[in-house]
Design goal:
By secondary structure, this protein is of the alpha/beta class. The chain is built from 8 helices and 12 strands. The longest helix has 17 residues, at 109-125. The radius of gyration is 19 Å and the shape is elongated. The structure holds calcium ion. Calcium ion binds at residues 10-11, 53, 55-56.
């Protein structure tokens, strides 16, 4: 799947210009006209990056950014602030509050796309590609999963499912949310198929210390159980 960006911008003409620019470069876009809408989009699909306007009708973008950086699930989503405010102190404030980059309007479409790619690349280069959750370790670059240093052989789907739960342990996902996140928005996967994949994933985990990691939440979906925090000596 290609890059996905959530654009939060209240001026329709600018929103469409950005969306057009992104889509022309093969970037998948979601649109939000204010912070409230942006939050809803985020619940539905976690983008690779958020382009966030500073001045929005319901709340200042920077205000939401500050909140986002403290969020249990979304604190590490890369954010580029996009704004007409070009003052140095504004840029500094943006970066100090957790923005990964800052672009002043009017911007060049080419530069915008280059900056998006640069931020996402930087973000993906670090230890982000190695995910740990208790005794579980997942290396996305090597496509390698270990529990207590023992290698598990998972299919791509099982790997993606497990990384979803390991990324946000404690969070409940409905079957539809799992489909959106693992297969993508407009896939035609049946909700029952999820249960089959989950069963297989559980079988892989059954012989490990993560055997109870995946929990079924009746009437809702599934969650990954938060690993116990062991005190470091
Ligand atoms: Ca605005």
């Amino acid at each position: 799947m290609g890059l996905s960006v959530l654009i939060v911008e209240d001026e329709p003409a600018i929103l469409e210009l950005i969306a057009f620019t992104c889509q022309s470069s093969g970037i998948d876009v979601s649109r939000a006209a204010n912070v409230a809408e942006a939050k809803k989009c985020l619940e539905h699909k976690e983008p690779d990056l958020i382009l966030l306007d500073w001045m929005l009708p319901d709340r200042p973008g920077i205000d939401w950014l500050r909140e986002l950086r403290k969020d249990e699930y979304f604190h590490d989503v890369p954010v580029i602030m996009l704004t007409a405010r070009g003052l140095e102190e504004d840029k500094v404030a943006g970066l100090n509050n957790g923005a990964d980059d800052y672009i002043v309007k009017p911007f060049s479409p080419k530069e915008l796309v280059a900056r998006i790619k640069a931020v996402v690349r930087r973000h993906g280069d670090g230890e982000e590609n190695v995910l740990t959750c208790g005794p579980l370790k997942m290396d996305k670059n090597k496509f390698e999963v270990t529990v207590d240093k023992k290698v598990l052989k998972l299919s791509v789907v099982e790997f993606n499912l497990l990384s979803l739960f390991a990324q946000h342990p404690g969070r409940v996902y409905s079957r539809q949310q799992i489909i959106d996140k693992v297969w993508g928005y407009d896939s035609s996967i049946d909700e029952r198929t999820i249960d089959v994949h989950m069963l297989r994933l559980r079988k892989h985990l059954a012989s490990t210390s993560m055997k109870d990691f995946i929990e079924t939440i009746r009437g809702l979906g599934y969650k990954g159980v938060k690993p116990l925090v062991t005190a470091s000596l």
